[in-house]
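Structure in, sequence out. Go:
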């Protein structure tokens, strides 16, 4: 297995530590007055989803992860299966496959029929998925808007067509489409 210098670990890079595949979220090079510098990383364990901080000396090396990203289209969730598996299709070969709900985790709430995602695959095993930065949903239910609240930053709860509950501006009504940030789960803007 190839080795990487810790100075090559930039945001979005994968590396292995034991049996765990880690994704670098933030990279910081800290140089002290004397001696060598340190590399401080914030990493996410792809299997467990846990985010931890790591520190290495400048000359350290880590194992390179054999990770690739593949396009896949979400088809449906099999609610009858005990694991609650998610069914996807390869858009090139049209081959269908399932991924367990443990791999999908909290990202399941953003999935909708026909959504294209990037699967993170290592040694033939799906480790996770990468959603688009933002997705568009329709408001299925929300409280009434009030006259005069068209410019203020007052928010109310709305239930989207996928069951997700988000805070939207007071002027939004049922049936309107909104863009949601998949990283934070927050309202971004109204979609015409």
């Amino acid at each position: 297995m190839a080795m990487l210098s810790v100075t090559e670990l930039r945001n979005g890079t994968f590396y292995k530590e034991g049996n765990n595949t880690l994704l670098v979220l933030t990279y910081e090079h800290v140089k002290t007055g004397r001696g060598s510098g340190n590399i401080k990383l914030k990493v996410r364990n792809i299997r467990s989803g846990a985010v931890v901080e790591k520190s290495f000396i400048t000359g350290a090396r880590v194992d390179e992860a054999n990770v690739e990203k593949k396009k896949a289209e979400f088809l449906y969730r099999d609610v009858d299966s005990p694991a609650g598996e998610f069914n996807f299709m390869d858009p090139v070969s049209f081959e269908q496959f399932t991924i367990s709900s443990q791999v999908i985790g909290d990202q399941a709430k953003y999935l909708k029929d026909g959504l294209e995602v990037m699967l993170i695959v290592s040694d033939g095993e799906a480790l996770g998925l990468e959603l688009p930065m933002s997705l568009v949903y329709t408001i299925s239910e929300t409280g009434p808007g009030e006259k005069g609240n068209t410019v203020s930053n007052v928010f109310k709860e709305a239930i989207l067509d996928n069951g997700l509950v988000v805070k939207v501006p007071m002027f939004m009504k049922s049936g309107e489409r909104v863009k949601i940030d998949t990283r934070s789960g927050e309202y971004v803007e109204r979609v015409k």
